[in-house]
Amino acid sequence: MNPEDLLKLVTTEMPFGKHQGTLIADLPGNYLGWFAREGFPKGEIGRLLALMYEMDHNDLRELLRPLRR
User: Fold this and answer.
1) Among 4, 12, 24, 62, which one is most buried in terms of CB atoms within 10 A?
2) Closest Cα to residue 14, out of 54, 41, 33?
3) Helix, strand or coil for residue 13?
4) Residue (of 65, 66, 37) closest to 49 by Cα position
């Protein structure tokens, strides 16, 4: 992970699915958990979803608060 990834979590919208248009940082934990069980998509979006899952799972969402606009 690089520091820019944290900024991407609060600026990148989910491009598909049930929560299309929702910022990755705002995706519900159960949705992230579903990806963790079923497999994250390939590419950058999958990498960001996996990072957000780890942050949610470890109760670290508050670290993103200062990065929000």
Assistant:
1) 24
2) 41
3) strand
4) 37
